[in-house]
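W.,

You were right to be curious about this one. When I first looked at the sequence I had no strong expectations either way, so I just let the prediction run and decided to look at it fresh. Below is the sequence, 206 residues in total, followed by the output.
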Amino acid sequence: MSMRAVACLLLVLASVATTSVAARADEAEQKLLTIEQAPGAVFPDADRFERRDVPMTPELRTAIQTRMGSVKPSLWETTLVTFTAHKGADTLGYAVVLEEIGKHRPITSIVGVTPDGKVQDVAVMVYREAYGGEVGSRRFLGQYPGRTSSDPLATKIKNIAGATLSVAALNRTVTKGLAAVDVLYLHPEASPAPAPDTAAGAAPPP
């Protein structure tokens, strides 16, 4: 076989391998909640949600990272999709959609935070790994409600065998969510430069 034929064969094999990996990744993707359903998953008692999309400016990122302390996100969103949960005239809390890398791919989740800075609830929206999907179960996520930014989640949250990286990703997500809500809603005056809204509107619960 000529060198040219060998090279062509290698290119074909590489293409097949890449296609196979992409197909497995697509098959592994679990879409659990839409953006419309997500806020209702963490604030089921709300009767309406006000959406606010906030661009991730350098100032906002710095403020969030400062509140996260030693916890470092694996990625930064270009825009934070946030919601204020209402019931009648009362504000139940705030929610933010975030992504963190599991083993290879991002896990999309929503974190609900009460007005006193505690986790209301957490829900996984899209899980893209082939393994470790147990992090989306209520049994696992039920460990987060009531947690605050002072809780060391890495030691407080029980691990799942075979899903260590996904658990770590959810811990970072919750830490980032608490920090983002604190910066944008709870204590914006303590931030170097609050980010402006780019979109706002009311969305009914699913």
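Here's what jumped out at me. The CA atoms of residues 99 and 108 lie 5 Å apart. And, maybe more interesting for your project: The mean pLDDT is 87.

Coffee later to discuss?

I.
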